Amino acid sequence: VERLKRLVGSTIAFWIGGFCTIFFRRPRMVAIEANGYRFRGRAMAVCMANGRYFGSGLGIAPGAIINDGVLNLVSVGRVSALTFLRYTGKLRKAEPVIHPEVHYVDVTQCRILSDTMDCPLELDGEVLGAAPLEVELLPGAVRFLVDADRAKAVCKALVSSSENSPKVNCCAHP
Fold first, then answer.
1. Structure pTM?
2. Which residue has the higher pLDDT, 9 or 133?
3. pLDDT at position 37, please?
4. Angle subtended at Cα 63 by Cα 59 and Cα 68, rounded to the nearest 5 degrees
């Protein structure tokens, strides 16, 4: 995707990469253990997201809230390319896909195993390695130093946009 972005731009590159994945990648045998959720079977994709969108507007994790202290795990089992195409409109709008092979789970830790060595792991569209993978969310582990006025504005926006998330904790130091 990175090389393609230079030729055709980010949006088109992500969509081409997505369609190639849908039509040419075969489901991989995986085992997922995450906060009591267990899955063992063939999967087209397993995603963990902190925000609702990725891949240039693909709303893969409609329940994800960036500041709620959890990641949204999305597992997509054996779904055909035509089925994926049928749900593209819902994905563009970040609406949940109701399908027996699609599962959404909020997690703070996750382990993904594969029986094969060719189960690629990607971060933001770039292949970083292969399974196994273990993830543990550490809320508040990353701190940012920003201008106090800018921090207040950002915190105000976060608090007003997180009515369902009482865990917002913003402070600004001059």
1. 0.71
2. 133
3. 92
4. 120
Q: Which of 90, 108, 98, 18 is nearest to 52 (CA)?
A: 90
DSSP codes, the chain: -HHHHHHH-HHHHHHHHHHHHHHHPPPEEEEEEETTEEEEEEESEEEEESSS-BTTTB---TT--TTSS-EEEEEE-S--HHHHHHTHHHHHTTPPP--TTEEEEEESEEEEEESSS--EEEETTEEEEES-EEEE--TT-------HHHHHHHHHHHHHT-TT-TT-------
Q: Which two tokens stand for residue 114?
A: 């594969």
Q: Indicate whether 172 pLDDT > 50.
A: no
Q: Is 118 exposed, middle or buried (0-12, 13-18, 19+ CB in 10 A)?
A: exposed
Q: How far is CA 164 from CA 29, 43, 61, 106, 159, in A?
A: 35, 31, 16, 14, 10
